[in-house]
Amino acid sequence: MTRRIDIVEVGPRDGLQNDPANLTVEQKLEFIARLEEAGVKRMESGSFVSPKAVPKMADSPAVFAGLDRSKPTRHIALALNEKGVRRAIDAKADEINFVLVASETFGRKNQGMSPQESADMLARCAPLVHEAGIPLSATISVAFGDPYDGEVDLGVVGNLAAQSQRAGVAELALGDTIGVADPWAVRRAIDRVRIEAPDVYLRMHFHDTRGQALANVAAAVDAGVDVIDASCGGIGGCPFAPAATGNVATEDVVYMLERGGFETGLDLSKLINTAKWLETVLKHPVSSALSKAGGFPVKERLIT
Ligand code: COA
Ligand code: ZN
């Protein structure tokens, strides 16, 4: 049987939060609709953080209010504190993804919290999400390195994973927020988290800042992980991580996995078209390889 890898599309949140372009709510909804048309079933559609911290996500309540709920998509809202969780519940998010932080200085700059404070905040917020009957997931940000403090201790990552499990987090992403992981570091982190939090489902979140993201996805899939975050066009980055560039591109991941014999349920041509459409609304090129080269085998050649 073909192994299925599920892709969580993060373009509308991680992708747009750091882009110089200011998309309207209508343009964001069109982006989301195009992704749904390409087969996306689960996506981060916005974040409920301080509008002062991330102005580009200030319109997330309006985006959630405008979603086409007749589609089967699970719309994820990002939240980092109690106020964010309450706002996400009010917006009828289908899932809430909480953000933990694995290192001190990034944690202070991104969310005003140390690693342990972020875990304490999760413990406070989780009951609210559970009471609302909404699935709770979490991401450990800077799990592979902090732009200010440097190397991150796997012990901290493991400890946060264990606390996530205790808080009832169903799925945990290890986030390479600044794109410093390599395939072997990915394996070590996965092995460690499986020991500390054996009941939590794993997801991986990679940025391609240093060109390692696809190799890291392959390493994670080899290690048995079958949920991967990606953003159409490879747009994105964190406003609090200097020099952080885009997420691994959805179409590049889909190409690699489908060539490798995995099933993603996504339509490569529609993803590429969406990446090209993004260039017109963002008014700058996107970074994905597939949006430039196209798929293979080339469709025209197949026809003739
Ligand atoms: N949504 C909207 N506003 C919020 C909020 C939320 N989730 N949480 C706090 N605020 C507002 C408060 O109401 C307060 O507003 P005021 O100044 O008008 O009174 C202000 O933000 C400060 O609140 P405080 O609780 O002291 O937060 P803080 O200044 O310590 O900041 C965060 C903490 C988490 C709110 C902030 O750092 C943040 O939103 N970070 C987001 C980072 C992010 O999204 N990074 C990328 C994704 S990981
Ligand atoms: Zn990210």
TrEMBL record:
Gene3D superfamilies given in the database record = Aldolase class I
Which ranges carry the Pyruvate carboxyltransferase domain? 5-272
One Pfam family recorded for the sequence = HMGL-like
What Gene Ontology molecular-function terms does this entry list? hydroxymethylglutaryl-CoA lyase activity; metal ion binding
The answer to keyword Metal-binding applying to this record is: yes
Show the PROSITE patterns listed in the entry. Answer: PYR_CT
One GO BP on record is:
L-leucine catabolic process
Q: Which family does it belong to?
A: Belongs to the HMG-CoA lyase family.
Q: InterPro entries recorded for this chain?
A: Aldolase_TIM (IPR013785), HMGL (IPR043594), PYR_CT (IPR000891)
- This chain belongs to the protein called Putative hydroxymethylglutaryl-CoA lyase
Natural source organism? Hyphomonas jannaschiana VP2
Q: Which UniProt keywords apply?
A: Lyase, Metal-binding
